[in-house]
Amino acid sequence: MGVVVIDGSTVRDFVNDETLFKKSVDESFAALDLNKDGVLSRPELRKAFETMRLIESHFGIDVATTPEQLTKLYDSIFEKFDCDGSGTVDMDEFRAEMKKIMLAIADGLGSSPIQMALEDDDNQSLLKKAADLEASKLSSS
Ligand SMILES: [Ca+2]
Questions:
Q1: Distance of CA 92 from the midpoint of ligand 1 (Å)
Q2: Which of 51, 125, 127, 139 has its Cα between 20 and 30 A from that of 31?
Q3: Which Pfam families does the entry link to (predicted)?
Q4: pLDDT tens per residue across span 43-84
């Protein structure tokens, strides 16, 4: 194990690998659906984003953010996911929005690579899975 360097094209390759991306997103969804009712509630989604530091920086959170601002921000993220305004996020909504977010992150990374530690056992992180894909390519070539 060690560190793998990922950039925008790593993330884009991952999103474009439809089978792998769908499987990864579905696994994240299952892990986030704490009460296993098949949809993500507001607290379930918030918990997810609190554990994803990179997504937080993508949405512009900095250390000075107050709890009230955070709640507002997580509410606005939830509204984005909940396209049909049903008050819950279903699998299709989750897949569609995660794809958008990952592509936005890819654009943000561009050709400025970041390092990711492979021993980090954050299995819910899609960026970690993108990094794993990159690492598997490196080891097989
Ligand atoms: Ca749920």
A1: 14
A2: 139
A3: EF-hand_7
A4: 999 887 776 654 445 555 555 567 787 788 788 889 999 999
Name the CATH architecture for the domain at 3-140: Orthogonal Bundle (1.10)
Could you state, in order of their start, the residue ranges of all structural domains in the chain?
3-140
Angle at 134 between CA 141 and CA 57, to 5 degrees: 165
The whole-angstrom separation of Cα 64 and Cα 49 is: 17
pTM, two decimal places: 0.77
CA of 43 relative to ligand 1 center, distance in Å? 9
Report whether 14 contacts 130 (CB < 8 A): yes
Q: Is the pLDDT of residue 109 over 80?
A: yes
